[in-house]
Design brief:
Number of helices: 8
Distance between the termini: 20 Å
Helix content: 25-40%
Number of strands: 9
Strand content: 15-25%
Protein name: Epimerase
CATH topology: Rossmann fold
Radius of gyration: 16 Å
CATH class: Alpha Beta
Structural class: alpha/beta
Oligomer: single chain
Order of helices and strands: EHEEHEHEHEEHHEHEH
CATH superfamily: NAD(P)-binding Rossmann-like Domain
Amino acid sequence: MKIVVFGASGMVGQGALRECLLDPAVGSVVTVGRSPLAVDDPKLRHVVHTDFGDLSPIADELADADACFYCMGLTSAGLTEAEYTPVTHDYALEAARVVGGTYVYVSGEGANADGRAMWARVKGRTENELLALERRVFVVRPGFIQPRHGITSRTRIYRYVYTWTWWLLPVLRRLAPKYVTTTEHLGRAVVALAKGAQTERVLRSDEINRLAG
C-alpha cells in the first residue's frame, strides 16, 4: 500500500507515521509538510510544500495512493474562526480532492457542526462535508491522547497537560473508555482502516482502541 500523511510532524501524525513504517503491508509512505522531517526510512518520501490550499503542483507525487491520513491540526486557543478554518477545513478538503484511496480525517471528541464552541463547529462542518463525498471516508474523534514511544506534542500547553496528568490515565481508561487512546493505538487504527477494516464511519476512542487490537 501507498499511504499519504499530512501533518506527520504533529503528535497524531507522528503516531500514524510510526505505525505505517512498522506495518509490512505498507510499502511506501509520502508525507507532505512545510519543512523536512527528522525521520529517515527506506519506505518514506517527504514532499516539501507550502501552499496546502493548492496541492495541484505536487499531485503527481500523491497519485495512486491507497489511503490518505489528514492529521494536520492546531489549537484554537486565541484564534478567530477565520484563522482556524484553513488548516482544519480548507486544507482537509483540498487533500481529499487531490489524494485518492481511503480518506481518514482526524477530528476530535465533541466535534459538532451545531456546537457552541468555534472549534467544534468548524471540525463538525468539515466532517459533514467529507462524509458526503462519494468515496470511502472515515472520521476519527479521539479524546485524550496519550503520547507513546517518545512522541511529544508541538503545542506547549498540551505537553504540560500530558506531563502532569499521566497518572490519571489508568483511571480514565476504566471510567471513560470512549475518551482515552494513545498515539500508538490511533496510528494502528488508521492503518487498519487503510487496509480495509469495516467499521462505523465515525470512530470514538473506544472503537479506535478496538481496531488497534
